[in-house]
Amino acid sequence: MHLAGRGKAAVFQRWLFGRLGAFFYNEQPMPVFILLFFSLWLLPAQADNSHVPAVSEEAAAQALQATVIDPYLELHTGPGRGYPVIYVVEKGATIGIVSRRTSWYLVVDKQGNSGWVKRENLARTLVDTGVPVVLPETRHSDFLQHRVRLGFTLGWQESAEQVAAMAGFRLSRHIGIEAEIGQLFSATTNGQQYSASLILEPTDRWAVTPFVSLGYGRQELELKSKLPGNRPLEDNFRSIGAGVNWYIGFNFVLRGEYRTLDIFSDNQTVSNDLWRLGFSSFF
């Protein structure tokens, strides 16, 4: 199952970067916020020792005990490959498995040194009975338990292509809020969108989680033709939509969504259909 998740994630990433390449091929400007978003996603996170949470004696005593069988086990300052190694536990040493964050585990050794270990590395340890330790995998339900998410989408709003980056915060297991910033590209206009939405996910019983959204925002469009009298168009809009989240592996969730936008322009309301596909990563 772990390898299947890795394959689905890789296929999606190839598709996503292919779409990004199309923007450059068509000589369309890539928004700065999109470049910053991908820089944060692709570049390894850096951290110092202060990011390692302290493990109390009580938590260490209650932790699952395991023995290292590899020559050494590296402990990182945070739950990610880019975090530096702070300690090394040698073969034969005993560690306690305290908690989990997605596919990383917080462990502590007998000297009280704590750090984060990747699931694949921690799987090569033995419990007291001499059998490999059994670790739970990151699953779709974890997506509903983490409060913070970041996302990126590509889609189409009528005849314009839309790219957007979003950040969300879960107020409860089934209710969350999202803020997003997007950019539109078409043959006649370019523009930006800003919006905030209320997200409702009514159930977590299925592998694919449906959601509905209700939002309000503003879009600013600029006509490409420089004819006399042309001016930027700035309009507010409201949106209602529905979509699905599908866990594809690690801490990535594939997102498909449809929204209808009611744009309030010059004393009239214009409706636009928005279809988009993207991903979210939860923390």
UniProtKB/TrEMBL annotation:
Residues 63-126 form the SH3b domain. PROSITE patterns: SH3B. Keywords: Signal. This is SH3 domain-containing protein.
